[in-house]
Design brief:
alpha+beta; 104 residues; four-stranded antiparallel beta sheet; Alpha-Beta Plaits
Amino acid sequence: MADVPAYVVANLVVTDAQEYRKYEKGFFPILKKYQGEFITYDDNSECLEGSDPLPGRVILFKFPSAEIARQWYADEEYQALSEFRRAGTELKSLTLVNGLPPRS
């Protein structure tokens, strides 16, 4: 079976924009190293239903597979860079979502 895409959904609240900016500056080269694709972010997402609306920023990006997404997350360079995210945000969640296989 071919690999199915995987998505990462991040939800965070920026508490120190200067520290978070250091993370943002180094993020995209590492994402590309793992064939990741930045899809979007939203600082004002709208909760249409439910009791736990997502606060702050919601970010969505895609990888060719869940295994590649895990490799990206475990990358030493990414983990070192993440210290700026940890210093500049309150991370609510970082979630790996498996995509569907291609329809035939």
